[in-house]
Design a protein that fits this description.
heterodimer, A: mainly beta, B: 5-stranded antiparallel β-sheet, 4-stranded antiparallel β-sheet
Chain lengths: ~375, ~170
């Protein structure tokens, strides 16, 4: 075998030149990029009799001319596998409230194919069905789709304006927002599911959906093959992928209760008082929030009952007109007559004779019975 | 084929490599035509496709490489045809695993050939003798996907007009 040493050496050198182990940096998940030429060339070494012959390289049709460089590589170009995934980002619902605008659900679109691709985006509302274990039972409005232009993961109106992805490199991903407005009519505990579907399109032309190359291989050309999996609402190998997200409505739900009790009368004082002229009657208005989020900006307006006169100086050792109790804490305010809240404490009697209360303690009603707000005031019966 | 050509070839070999040991007797080993070797070497790329045979059964057959995308397995077939009037011996075929491809373990075959692999295109050995050192310093047997070259060494001479075949499979990364 010694005689083989020379041919072996030349063969090795030839193989190095062919680049057998030149590993170029390449995308991992997406794989070899489309339109890459895959080249292969073998080399045979042999003897005739005992004479080592010059090695011969292969060619696609058969080569017998000895010597490095006289063969030709057998080659093909890598075709374009279109593959994509869309995943919901937060792993849970987007909590919103009635009347909210630009409520955002976020998705991540990843190009797992082996070529840059454009993607058409569309959002639809689901009817029924379960997302995150919650059944869809309402709809949002004005549903739009925007691409996160600056990759910060936050929807910015006026900045994130693109509605399609013009070009996404192989292995790259981009955040896509579904943005919607929430009708005032939705109520606490309702769910509105939305679905984002991305469809592969011709790179640079999101308006032109990609199509699989029909029929047999086109040698030397980059054929298109759909290799995507099954997403929400789409089939495998259809060039599309969908994912679902959900809006969860959390709102305040206020319940109002009003009670009255006679505090004193001119004859019995505070001992078993009767509702007779001159008696002082206390009204207690209780707001309880059975919703999920605090009610804010709450103003309680109650007409002073006919045939009664608002009684001032009834609380806080005569300094205040109204008491506001939240849990174990009671605060007071002065309800000025004439409609001007001169001391700015949130309590006033309007020109029309109504009591209006919106103090720091009463303007926000947190949810839960322990956070109920009770407003008390007193009147004197004519 | 004249003797002059053969002598010239022998001289070239002697010039480029100091280790050529045996000089052939020109009279016993007439070479091929000028500028041509004794072997015609051909490389073909194919993929398997499923077709229905006459019995309606699904069978796989090889067809010219079609729609190769990452993950596709390509069958590379190298045929060495003896185009001379005399036998060729000590035949071995070297084939690099193509760039962007990963050799499929145990896929190399060749009738009458001993198959060895290499991690650098220089040293060829049986799979269990190819060892690599990991980043942590530990040594292990190389994985098939780490092979960079394959060598088929044919045990017997190839007679005139006969064909030797070497085949392997590789997956596009």
């Amino acid at each position: 075998m010694k005689i083989l040493r020379h041919p072996m050496k030349t063969a090795s050198i030839a193989l190095v030149a062919l680049g057998g182990f030149a590993a170029l940096p390449q995308a991992f998940a997406a794989g070899t990029l489309a339109n890459t030429s895959i080249d292969n060339r073998a080399t045979v070494s042999y003897t005739v009799g005992t004479v080592a012959q010059t090695p011969i390289e292969s060619s696609p049709t058969g080569n017998s001319t000895p010597g490095a460089g006289n063969g030709a590589s057998t080659s093909f170009v890598v075709d374009n596998r279109i593959d994509l995934t869309v995943t919901e980002v937060s792993g849970g619902t987007t909590v919103t409230g009635p009347g909210a605008t630009d409520a955002v659900t976020a998705f991540l679109l990843t190009n797992t194919g082996n070529a840059a691709q454009a993607f058409q985006l569309s959002a639809t509302q689901l009817t029924g069905g379960t997302v995150f274990g919650n059944t869809d039972n309402t709809d949002v409005a004005n549903v739009r789709v925007f691409v996160d232009s600056n990759d910060n993961g936050i929807y910015e109106p006026g900045v994130d304006t693109a509605t399609d992805v013009t070009s996404l490199a192989a292995d790259a991903d981009v955040t896509v927002f579904v943005v919607a407005d929430v009708p005032l009519t939705v109520t606490n505990g309702q769910f509105a599911s939305v679905r984002l579907t991305a469809r592969a399109a011709v790179d640079g032309s999101p308006g032109t959906l990609a199509t699989e190359t029909a029929g047999p291989e086109t040698p030397g050309a980059v054929d298109v093959v759909f290799g995507d999996g099954t997403g929400a609402g789409d089939a495998a190998e259809d060039g599309a992928f969908g994912a679902d997200d959900q809006y969860e409505v959390e709102s305040a739900a206020l319940a109002v209760a009003k009670t009255s009790s006679v505090v004193s009368d001119p004859f019995n004082g505070t001992s078993s008082p009767r509702a007779i002229p001159g008696a002082v009657v206390e009204y207690a208005i209780t707001l309880t929030n059975t919703g999920a989020v605090p009610a804010t900006g709450v103003t309680i307006v109650d007409p002073i009952p006919a045939n009664t006169v608002f009684a001032t100086g009834q609380y806080n050792t005569g300094a205040s007109d109204v008491s506001v109790t939240v849990g174990a804490t009671t605060t007071f305010c002065v309800a000025e007559a004439g409609g001007t809240d001169t001391n700015g404490d949130g309590c006033v009697r309007t020109a029309g004779g109504d009591l209006s209360v919106s103090t720091a303690a009463s303007s926000t009603v947190a949810s839960g019975a322990g956070n109920a707000v009770t407003v008390r005031f007193r009147v004197t019966i004519d | 084929m004249n003797k002059g050509t053969l002598i010239l070839m022998g001289a070239l070999a002697a010039l480029t490599a100091a280790r050529v040991v045996a000089a052939a007797d020109p009279a016993q080993a007439p070479g091929p035509a000028a500028g041509q070797g004794c072997i015609s070497l051909k490389t073909v790329a194919q993929t398997e496709e499923e077709v229905l045979n006459e019995q309606g059964e699904r069978v796989k057959r090889l067809a010219p490489a079609a729609k190769v995308v990452p993950g596709t397995e390509v069958v590379w077939t190298v045929t060495a045809s003896n185009v001379c009037g005399q036998a060729v011996g000590n035949v071995f075929i070297d084939n690099p695993v193509p760039e962007h491809m990963r050799y499929v373990a145990s896929s190399a075959l060749g009738a009458g050939a001993d198959i060895a692999f290499s991690l650098d295109g220089r040293r060829y050995a049986a799979p269990e003798q190819l060892r690599v050192r990991d980043a942590d310093g530990s040594e292990r047997v190389a994985r098939a996907d780490e092979y960079t070259h394959i060598r088929w060494t044919f045990r017997n001479a190839i007679a005139p007009g006969q064909v030797a075949l070497a085949r392997f499979r590789a997956v596009l990364k």
